[in-house]
Prior knowledge:
single chain; CATH 2.40.50.140
Amino acid sequence: MHSLRQLSRAAGPSLRAFSTTPPRPLSKMQLIGRLADTPELTPTSTGRDVIRYALGVSSGPRGEDGNRAVSWFRVASFVEGPQRELLLSLPKGTQMYVEADAKMDTYQTQDGSNRTQLNLLQRSFEALARPQSHADHSTSGAESGTNAAEEPLSGVGAS
């Protein structure tokens, strides 16, 4: 009988050895999208505050109207301190990078039917670009060399 190492050498790089440690559950998402609205702070039933926001993520080719399809994701965050204040201050349209734990929850509605919902719990975020105000479009976008629709944010993020 051949050992796994012997088989691996004979098969070449297509066969690899696997770890003997038990698998760990992993359900994460990475998103780059724009805020649907300003994040909102709401209390939970346990008295802890949660920040909730929706992120619109564009994908696929542009349609006849020039727009891409958008998927909307609801995100919850328990971030504290300065990062909490930063997240709450971000305006609608801010482009963000978000890493979140993903979980599918099933619940029963009032009419007795079952519904499934994707829940995302933010682990980290980075604000990539804020939308630029309409008053600034005529001067700063052209002079600074940035996209006229957004203002870059360098070094802004959370963990």
